[in-house]
């Protein structure tokens, strides 16, 4: 096996582990979204979206990016195989998690009335924010346990915690929505946060971390490194959440809470269902890229490989969404949500630019260029916000889809030229070829559904989907020996079943 093939297989192995988790999460999300859409309707989804985006904004303000910056420190300590060092880093990290979690809870609690007024234009949701304040602590503690699992490379335990959280969370929240309707939204959010924390604690306790006494002075001196890098990362995350929050409030004030619900539903399909592929890949991609970040040539190779695999997996899914989005929306939600279709058409095209820019943007963090990352994200969030506000004001939900395409095209150009100048980055011919061909299939699907009658659009669409799947399969076979890998997996599964019997 060549070095490049081994690298591609490593990408696919990690993607497969968490891809399976994400597929399960997608199924759970489909069931949850369907029931929520039916039980709460667009207005209920709008209220939920405004509540969670507000608390998410505060979390981004107070968590200091520890979930990103600490992975690097814990992974470095783990690679040293020094148990005292591992225990010291983990102990300091856990203290910081408690401090930042409590900070988020107190801010939400003290400003609950003001948050209700700012978000909904009245104080009717003050008590809701009071109840939700505890979720900032619970979520930060949960994030701390998940970071520990990731940093210690316990990917199977991480996957199990994720799977269990998705499944059990569904069984807890749906009865609340069924019996209490919109009144079950807040209890459902709190119950989910508590459940996720309990599960992550259960799985993280399987890691043997030796108890150690760490002084306050050492906590401060060692913690500065995590907080310094994490602060700029959290600020960039805060900008993103803040921009999203402003857009939701603007939509709510301009078009009503039902429009917020439609917006949430549309981008849940794109960012949650399709974006889960990014989450599956990032778990392994970030630490692997960090390991070679000092070598521009190796870094460039890994980024190109990651971008290729991302497109080969995502492209057929996006073409399916473009052709059959009406069925997808009705299946996932209900006929009340079909107005969001045109937004998703455009956003699906924008995901191609997001896939490429996502792979490149990780270079800034992997190389520890936190200031560069912050200023890049600041610029991006400013024009994303402007595009969204202008897009919705003039063209409604369709304008939000257009702004998604424009923003990620501009963002790709931005991160490409910065990384080219600073880190000698470039896209390989192989990636350019894959992008051009798969994007052409998507554009053809977009044109088909836009100008043909449904019967012809579906016919042309099925052909385009088949071509996209065939092309991805062929390219994956070249890179990782996909057929041999599938045969090996089936053989191993059969042997396991035989030994079980």
Helix content: over 70%
**Strand tally:** 0
What is the string of SSEs from the N terminus onward? HHHHHHHHHHHHHHHH
Query: Helix/strand-derived class?
Result: mainly alpha
User: Overall mean pLDDT score?
Assistant: 81
Number of helices: 16
Low-confidence stretches: none
The largest β sheet comes out as: none
Distance between the termini: 34 Å
Keywords:
mainly alpha; 501 residues; 16 helices
Could you walk me through the main structural features you see in this protein, from its secondary elements to its overall organization?
With 501 residues, this protein is mainly α. The chain folds into 2 domains: 25-255, no CATH class; 292-501, no CATH class. Helices cover 89% and strands 0% of the residues. The protein has 16 helices and no strands. It has helices at residues 3-62, 66-80, 83-110, 112-120, 126-151, 155-180, 185-204, 216-255, 257-274, 276-291, 296-332, 341-366, 370-423, 429-451, 454-480, 482-500. Helix 2 (66-80) packs antiparallel against helix 3, helix 3 (83-110) packs across helix 8 (216-255) and helix 11 runs parallel beside helix 14 (429-451). The protein is globular, with a radius of gyration of 23 Å.
